[in-house]
Here is the input.
Amino acid sequence: MTLGIIGMGLIGGSMALDLLRGGFADAVLGVEQDSAAAAAAQRIGLCSEVVSLDECVDRSDIVIVSVPVSAAPKVLREVLDRFQATGATDKIAIDVCSTKESICAAVKYHPCRSQYVATHPMAGTEYSGPWAAQPGIFDAKACIFADTEESSPKALHAVEDMYSALNMRIIRMSADAHDVHAAYVSHLSHIISFALALTVLDKEKDDKHIFDLASGGFSSTVRLAKSGAPMWVPILMQNRENLLRVMDTYMDFMESFKDALESYDEDAVRELVEGANKIRKIIR
Here is the structure.
């Protein structure tokens, strides 16, 4: 098994580490435009070679598109175009992007659409680049498969085997449902973290001791604010409609807290906190 990974960053690089170490893949070919990142990927051992996109597609059994969501539709089309041009009916392509509607729509009518499986491994850290790659980040996490009715049984089976090798549990849903759910459980939390960081940084201009008092609670809440703009700006823009609806709900609850505090309504504050505590039944 030879894997081709287009984009040797956190997700692509971490997949390479685990799939090589676990024996699922015998070799990984990388495609990386950034020369420093390409050199690092080889030095760290994420790939044996850095090659062109066409060479990667021609020599790989499974091609993983792991680039920012703004670039992913174009790159995926290039991969499927190469499948078609070379008559490579046995090859498989996947993406690992955080939004699914736009990329699935971009290749919906491609002649090689059945060789593509839309996936989103729900894992990662706030860091980016090949330097951030680490083993085990996918272990016991969920992986979304979107619009599986568009993929061939052979492609699905091979990609299921790959994610099983990463010890991920697979959940199937439509691309549009994925983007709605991702807005709630992932994308909104990043916006909240970005906003909290901006709030505290603004306050820190006047109060130099604020970071001296920061505890573990603050650090865990604001951790996502370290996530880079090149990755997250395209995600937030692509999922803007779902996010705007989710943010309205979030701000309604913020207003409820504000109103309760302004009116010194201890019972209302308690009701809100205890309502939120129900999340314990879902997330332990």
